[in-house]
Design goal:
The protein is α+β, with helices and mostly antiparallel strands and about 525 residues long. Helices cover about 55% and strands about 15% of the residues. Strand 7 and strand 8 form a beta hairpin. The C terminus is likely disordered.
């Protein structure tokens, strides 16, 4: 009898413990995303200020004329004194990595040679055992010259900088930051994870990776846990008194049912294991266990609360995605609704492919143009045809999207899809010039979906074209710009896709008429 009491009591105690852990880790997850946002803001600020100087004609002419004094005074010196992003060093180097001009912290020639200079890419590097965030952007018109230069700006990311940055961002919660592992050669395993350091704090491990995936530095950021205690007090009290009531009720039930113990215990514990295994939507049938009504009711209530907290985490992810999409569309008014349409077109096409993760495809489609946040809205909304130089800036958005998503654990899984969505089967895409099977099937689906919506939608410089015209254009590029298999899937479902786009257009017109107080003329 006592053994059964102990076993059931431990089962409920286990559920309560798991539920409380879930609540605490909710807060850790949210704070982790906040830290990623802070680090992302550093990257955005560096990119914006460096791009501003790189596109000056004066910068290019000064480089071509070897005017190092002008480059130092007007480029590198200005960059390190920019208050917006606190750059630690700025260099102008040629394609051979010979230094033309520099300001700020001195970096040796050997260290400069170790930096991988890429067109409009921000990466982390370790120089003299210090971690730096370095962004490089090319200067000059690469179509007409054989000689060019890079502007490279760097920001040292160490304990002092992170402490100052995070204490300003989280003035009441932030406790401290330390480097939790020494820099290794890439083969050394970093013990990474988030959790409870002791009863008064929780920690988050922020790991930085190099451009080749090498583990560079790991910092442990600590926050005060007691600040969140008020959020748990009421639930802890409920759990405590529930457990006390459970124990008392169980004693009475065991005395009454001592001669009626049968296979229902096995069934009850089997159902308890299902709940403790993570299926919080499952509810134990109270009618089957008359003697255990109170036990089952409390367990079902607790599992419902845990499920509610899990739903809140999912809602946080959806809110984050919605915020990012709104940020994109706020900069480019002509693409309002574009990401939503691309998502639904892609989901229809994906019916022809086995093993497609619908959630991953949806998220990648919604955020495929996230990199455009780093591009000025005047360029995105320009009415005239873009110059080659302007188009090259637009072409950086897949790489920028990759960089943004790399800093978010919640969205990291889609970064490869986003950076490849302008690659082509014939190898003439960007940014890497991948061919055929080197390109993810997710990216191939997005490319066709993106092109179809772009052709049929209005743009600043032209009106949208008809659906059938768009299909004809895509067919002309079959096997070149677009994957054969994806185009075949598009053709198979073209009527469904056409009906969806027409329905979407009717919906938009109804909303517009409603806002203007007019009569709704279109229905879906």
């Amino acid at each position: 009898m006592i053994s059964w009491m102990i076993i059931i009591s431990l089962s409920q105690s286990f559920i309560i413990t798991k539920g409380l852990e879930a609540l605490i880790y909710d807060h850790i997850s949210i704070k982790e995303h906040d830290i990623d946002d802070v680090i992302n803001n550093i990257t955005y600020e560096m990119i914006e200020v460096a791009n501003k100087y790189a596109v000056w004609d004066e910068t290019y002419y000064a480089f071509m004329n070897s005017d190092t004094q002008w480059l130092h005074k007007n480029i590198t010196q200005n960059l390190v004194t920019e208050e917006s992003c606190n750059i630690d060093f700025a260099y102008v180097v040629d394609v051979k990595k010979d230094v033309i001009a520099f300001a700020g912290e001195f970096i040796s020639k050997e260290s400069v040679d170790s930096i991988e200079l890429k067109e409009s890419v921000a990466d982390y590097f370790v120089i003299d055992n210090e971690l730096y965030l370095i962004y490089s952007v090319k200067v000059g018109d690469t179509r007409t010259i054989n000689r060019s230069a890079f502007i490279a700006v760097g920001k040292r990311i160490d304990e002092n900088y992170l402490s100052a940055l995070l204490s300003e961002t989280f003035p009441t919660e932030f406790k401290g930051v330390v480097q939790s592992t020494e820099f290794g050669d890439g083969s050394k395993q970093i013990n990474k994870g988030n959790g409870i350091a002791d009863t008064n704090e929780f920690y988050i491990d922020k790991t930085f990776y190099g451009f080749n995936g090498e583990l560079l530095k790991n910092y442990r950021v600590s926050f005060q846990l007691e600040l969140y205690s008020s959020k748990f007090e009421s639930m802890l009290s409920v759990f405590h008194y529930t457990l006390m009531g459970f124990a008392g009720t169980l004693m009475v039930i065991v005395i009454i049912a001592v001669n009626k113990v049968d296979s229902r215990f096995d069934k009850l514990f089997s159902q308890l294991n299902r709940v403790t295994g993570g299926d919080y939507s499952y509810k134990i049938e109270r009618s089957e266990y008359f003697e255990f009504q109170n036990i089952v009711r409390q367990i079902n209530l607790l599992s419902s609360e845990v499920q509610r907290k899990i739903s809140e985490i999912e809602e946080t992810k959806l809110d984050t995605i919605s915020t990012l999409v709104n940020a994109i569309e706020a900069k480019d008014k002509y693409t309002k609704g574009h990401s939503e349409r691309v998502k639904n077109i892609a989901l229809i096409i994906s019916k022809e492919f086995e093993g497609i993760d619908q959630d991953m495809l949806s998220t990648a489609a919604i955020l495929h143009d996230i990199g455009k946040i780093s591009i000025h809205e005047d360029l995105l909304n320009k009415l005239e045809t873009l110059s080659d130089e302007e188009f090259n800036i637009i072409k950086t958005h897949p790489s920028m999207g990759y960089q943004i998503l790399s800093n978010s654990k919640m969205l990291n899984e889609i970064k490869e899809i986003v950076i490849q969505h302008h690659e082509r089967p014939d190898g003439k895409g960007y940014p890497y010039g991948l061919k055929g099977d080197q390109i993810s099937i997710y990216s191939k689906i997005l490319q066709v979906s993106d092109a179809l919506d772009a052709i049929t939608s209005d743009r600043p410089y032209r009106k949208g074209r008809g659906f059938d015209v768009a299909i004809a254009i895509i067919l002309q590029e079959r096997g070149k710009q677009f994957d054969n298999g994806v185009v075949t899937a598009l053709l198979k479902h073209r009527f469904e896709i056409k009906e969806y786009l027409e329905s979407y257009e009717r919906h938009v017109r109804n909303e517009t008429l409603g806002e203007l107080g007019g009569t709704v003329l279109y229905t879906s």
